[in-house]
């Protein structure tokens, strides 16, 4: 067993943890929407207006704060008017990005916003820049949010929704350096200005407009965007997105469940690169925006493996093990630590795609190890991140990955500490001085198992959260972290 000292100073505040850091992403891709979230009103699977009841409950349980939709690459070929009105009259189209399947548009704007209302989360709409028009996006905003007399507000009413919805988060394009139009940052910045200018605030609605940002370490994209919005146009950009997938080798992604020790640590080392990305993009943004007005929005992140054997390669369906849970835990700890700049993050994707929190098969639903990490970390939402230092050691891979990951926050007189021990075989004992926080009670929960452990439809609870022990004596917290574990400690 390795011993690590840790120090928390509850008086040293790092910033507010926006609940949206614990956000999710849903795309018209594979079985994310159809079958995963939406089964239609006539389905024998219990549903509310076509939306699976079990999915709504699972989302609510982790306090899912925000959901991004309809893409992804799909967003830049989505025309919202195809997805409103009588379902029988909706256009059928080809989903060119994801398997060339027929998209019947039965899940559109009304269904998505209904889902968000049922879950109690913020909607985050990703607008079409690549193959759309300024008018199309501006009318979408009018359709959703305008309360008065206008062609789009009338159309919404004809389609059965009298009251406008509130829409805060609006993405203007997706990966416009790639599937969203293969643009240079200079060209995109010009396009963005047009789109953002005509997406208006109606009826007391207040848009938070998010620009397409860099792919992983493309620091030049960030620099160009921050330069382009360093003048009287500042107000047009509230957030800049960042996409980062943990993929050590694009040509040989490997399977979610089959890996050796080297594969395990290499993936974690790749995931840990998020620390460098957040640091370096923040440094650039700090130079232009020292007051931190523009949020860094990590609206796609997570693991990406080869699809499960026998499944459609365009559907990106993968299993999810304790290795994925370790990626989630260390990434979320970093987001907490960088919460001054990171205002939202959306793991890809919420159901049946990539690092999903939920997998479905017909009427069956399982919660993945990644789901349980979101459950363990949920009390950080709306907390104040506080200073949390730990002794550490690099282990495992070529350049090494820190064995212990941690972050802490305080909210309503409760201190939440989340930890992970990514070692495959060594236990860690944490001995933590907790300063400036008077606690008399401690409780803990744990998620642990073999790195390959996962849930499936025959054994849905192989990996699940359990109670754990922790000790608090004279301001010193002691907790043991078994190999490959994530732990939540609560002090009150
Ligand atoms: O999440 C899958 C895809 O990854 C998204 O559609 C795209 O934005 C990214 O490349």
Structure, described:
This protein is of the alpha/beta class and 492 residues long. It has 2 domains: 2-8 and 387-491, Immunoglobulin-like (Sandwich), CATH 2.60.40.1180; 18-382, TIM Barrel (Alpha-Beta Barrel), CATH 3.20.20. Helix content is 23%, strand content 28%. It is built from 10 helices and 26 strands. The strands form 6 sheets. It has a 10-stranded mixed beta sheet with strand order 23-22-26-20-19-16-1-21-25-24, with helices on one face. Strands 2-5-8-9-10-11-12-13 form an 8-stranded parallel beta barrel, surrounded by 5 helices. Helix 3 crosses helix 4, helix 7 packs parallel to helix 9 (322-337) and helix 9 runs parallel beside helix 10 (369-377). The longest helix is centred in the C-terminal third of the chain and has 16 residues, at 322-337. The protein starts with a strand and ends with a strand. The model has no long low-confidence stretch (mean pLDDT 97). It binds alpha-L-arabinofuranose (AHR). The site of alpha-L-arabinofuranose has 10 residues, from loops.
Fill in the keyword field for this structure.
492 residues, alpha/beta, TIM Barrel, 2 domains, 10-stranded mixed beta sheet, 8-stranded parallel barrel, 23% helix
């Amino acid at each position: 067993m390795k011993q690590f000292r840790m120090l928390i100073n509850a008086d040293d505040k790092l910033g507010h943890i926006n609940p949206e850091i614990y956000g999710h992403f849903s795309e018209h891709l594979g079985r994310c929407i159809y079958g995963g979230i939406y089964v239609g009103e006539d389905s024998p699977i219990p549903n509310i207006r076509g939306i699976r009841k079990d999915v709504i409950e699972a989302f609510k349980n982790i306090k899912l704060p925000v959901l991004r939709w309809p893409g992804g690459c799909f967003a830049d070929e989505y025309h919202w008017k195809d997805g409103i009105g009588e379902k029988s009259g909706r256009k059928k189209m080809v989903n060119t990005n994801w398997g060339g399947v027929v998209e019947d548009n039965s899940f559109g704007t009304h269904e998505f916003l209904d889902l968000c209302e049922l879950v109690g989360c913020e909607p985050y709409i990703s607008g079409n820049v690549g193959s759309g028009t300024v008018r199309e996006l501006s009318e979408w905003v009018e359709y959703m949010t305008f309360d008065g007399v206008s062609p789009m507000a009338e159309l919404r009413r004809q389609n059965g929704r009298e009251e406008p919805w509130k829409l805060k988060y609006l993405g203007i394009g997706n990966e416009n350096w790639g599937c969203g139009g293969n643009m240079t940052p200079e060209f995109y910045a010009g396009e963005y200005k047009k789109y953002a200018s005509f997406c208006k605030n109606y009826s007391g609605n207040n848009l938070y407009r998010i620009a397409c940002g860099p792919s992983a370490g493309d620091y030049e994209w960030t620099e160009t965007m921050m330069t382009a919005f360093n003048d009287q146009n500042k107000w047009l950009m509230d957030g800049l997105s960042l996409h980062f997938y943990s993929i050590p080798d694009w040509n040989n992604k490997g399977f979610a469940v089959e890996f050796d020790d080297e594969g395990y640590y290499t993936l974690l080392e790749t995931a840990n690169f998020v620390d460098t990305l957040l640091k370096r993009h923040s440094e650039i943004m700090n130079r232009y925006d020292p007051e931190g007005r523009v949020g860094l929005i990590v609206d796609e992140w997570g693991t990406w493996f080869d699809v499960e054997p026998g499944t459609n390669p365009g559907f990106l369906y993968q299993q999810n093990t304790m290795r994925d849970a370790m990626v989630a835990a260390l990434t979320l700890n970093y987001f907490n630590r960088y919460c001054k700049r990171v205002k939202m993050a959306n793991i890809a994707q919420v159901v049946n795609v990539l690092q999903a929190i939920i997998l479905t098969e017909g009427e069956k639903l399982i919660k993945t190890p990644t789901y349980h990490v979101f459950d363990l970390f949920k009390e950080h939402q709306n907390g104040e991140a506080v200073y949390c230092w730990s002794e550490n050691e690099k282990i495992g891979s070529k350049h090494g990955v820190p064995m212990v990951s941690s972050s802490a926050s305080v909210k309503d007189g409760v201190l939440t500490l989340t930890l992970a021990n990514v070692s495959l075989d060594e236990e860690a004992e944490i001995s933590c001085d907790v300063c400036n926080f008077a606690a008399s009670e401690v409780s803990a929960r744990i998620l642990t198992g073999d790195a390959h452990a996962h849930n499936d439809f025959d054994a849905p609870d192989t990996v699940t959260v359990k109670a754990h022990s922790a000790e608090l004596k004279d301001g010193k917290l002691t907790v043991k972290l078994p190999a490959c574990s994530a732990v939540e400690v609560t002090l009150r």
